[in-house]
Amino acid sequence: MAVVLVLVLIVVGSVLFHLLSPWWWTPIASNWDYIDNTIIISFWITGIVFAAVVLFMAYCVFRFRHREGNRAAYEPENKRLESWLMIVTAFGVTALLVPGLFVWSRFVTVPGDATAIEVVAQQWQWSFRLPGKDGKLGTSDTRDVTADNPLGVAPKDPNGQDDVLVQAADLHLPVGKPVKVLLRSIDVLHDFYIPEFRAKMDMIPGSVTYFWFTPTRTGTFQVLCAELCGQGHPLMHGVVVVDTEQDYLAWLGQQQTFAQLSAPQQSGSAKQPPGKIMASNLGVAADSKLSRSAQ
């Protein structure tokens, strides 16, 4: 009887902990409430199965406990039971998979007005590339990675000359605008994960993966690597700041472009180091105050 009581208490305690727990979703900063709904559906299905199995175990322990004179009966097959198990299992698996397929379809179907940005991972830091004044990202390739071109931007692609490079620093995004995130790894497997965005994806060397999201509230959010990528994996953190439009333009106007980073090496000038060149020609700010801060 003690075993039966423990099994029943496990079920009751698990259900109460799920319903009354103070630890729930982190604040949503993206449009992916569909993912939350899918997780809730999975919780309920697996929770019902868990409760049913444990309570059935408790019933069996009680119903078929040892009593003097009773003997066990061996039944090698029970077609009725097997049929019910097959139907219930098929229904449960379908209910778990189908919502995820709908969410996945939306997850990889990027809206036409989304702005493409690139996330580049390497042991053990995050770097980012944003389109410049032309609104287009230039091509990139791991084979173009050098000490002077750490993100591997194609030097001969005119679309990449005004690309904004954010190396091992915070990424800023405007609130309320969809973003297509192109994911590229320079060395090993990484995974770009921002918990509040409800979005993550593996980054595979030699491939470009992607997903999209729309930031729905301003704030500062931590970037994590969700793939074991070596000794420094626990320290591979980054920051994404979701800004208002005005704050985003102010930040963007202070960033460096690929052409400006490359210019000192191309001209041989040692008077103006790359780290001090500002993207004053981005054309993203209208007022003179912003222009002065970008110089």
Give your account of this protein's structure.
With 295 residues, this protein is an alpha+beta fold. It has 6 helices and 11 strands. It has helices spanning 2-20, 33-63, 79-108, 245-252, 258-267, 288-294; strands spanning 115-122, 125-130, 164-167, 171-174, 179-185, 190-194, 199-203, 209-213, 219-225, 238-243, 256-257. The chain has a 6-stranded mixed beta sheet with strand order 8-5-1-2-3-11. A hairpin with a 4-residue loop joins strand 6 and strand 7 (199-203). Helix 1 (2-20) runs antiparallel to helix 2 (33-63) and helix 2 runs antiparallel to helix 3. The longest helix is centred in the first third of the chain and has 31 residues, at 33-63. The radius of gyration is 27 Å and the shape is elongated. The model is unreliable at 266-295 (pLDDT under 50).
Structure characteristics:
295 residues, single chain
Number of helices: 6
Order of helices and strands: HHHEEEEEEEEEEHEHH
Taking the sheet with the most strands, its summary is: 6 strands, mixed
Rg calc: 27 Å
Please list the strands of the largest sheet in the order they lie side by side.
8-5-1-2-3-11
Overall mean confidence score, pLDDT: 81
Strand content: 15-25%
Helix content: 25-40%
Low-confidence stretches: 266-295
Q: Determine the structural class based on helices, strands and strand pairing.
A: alpha+beta
Shape: elongated
Strand segment count: 11
Calculate the terminal CA-CA distance, rounded to whole Å: 78 Å
